């Protein structure tokens, strides 16, 4: 299946991509650990079936030093021993924030309490923003059939100001 549309070759799409990348830089430059950022992005992308984003965040995480074992276990994080309690809280928030329509409460009080236990206010702001941003990216890529496999580490760094 070929991509339906190339957002990056369209004037409006390119303008939006630049602003989107700048929003991502705010999160990237926050005190939320980079490994947590990539794990959360990967997990939301898995749930949403976004091959493009799974490709990008797996490669970015690996380039930042994330182990293959941890990357391979993200989808089964509840059944593994390789994630910290803080990472588990972030992954739970990513899942519940991605599956809003599947739960009557959205993000549970239990998950929120775990997030509050492990992250400060700036990190929480970055984490909530990240969950929203990756879900938006997943939706755009899935809508236009942007397929995974061709992502190169750092390729969007030049897009942001």
UniProtKB/TrEMBL annotation:
Pfam families: CMD. It comes from the Bacteria. This is Alkyl hydroperoxide reductase AhpD. Residues 16-96 form the Carboxymuconolactone decarboxylase-like domain. InterPro entries: AhpD-like, AhpD_core, CMD-like. It comes from Streptomyces violascens.
């Amino acid at each position: 299946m070929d991509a339906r549309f190339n957002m990056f070759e369209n004037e409006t799409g390119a303008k939006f991509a630049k602003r989107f990348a700048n929003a991502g830089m705010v999160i990237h430059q926050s005190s939320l650990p980079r490994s947590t950022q990539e794990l959360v992005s990967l997990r939301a992308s898995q749930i949403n079936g976004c091959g493009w984003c799974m490709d990008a965040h797996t490669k970015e995480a690996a380039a930042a030093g994330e182990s293959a074992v941890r990357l391979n276990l993200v989808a089964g994080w509840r059944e593994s021993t390789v994630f910290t309690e803080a990472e588990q809280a972030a992954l739970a928030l990513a899942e519940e924030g991605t599956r809003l329509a599947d739960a009557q409460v959205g993000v549970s009080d239990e998950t929120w309490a775990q997030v509050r236990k492990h992250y400060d206010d700036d990190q929480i702001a970055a984490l909530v923003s990240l969950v929203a941003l990756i879900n938006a990216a997943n939706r755009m890529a899935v809508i236009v059939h942007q397929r995974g496999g061709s992502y190169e580490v750092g390729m969007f760094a030049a897009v942001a100001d």
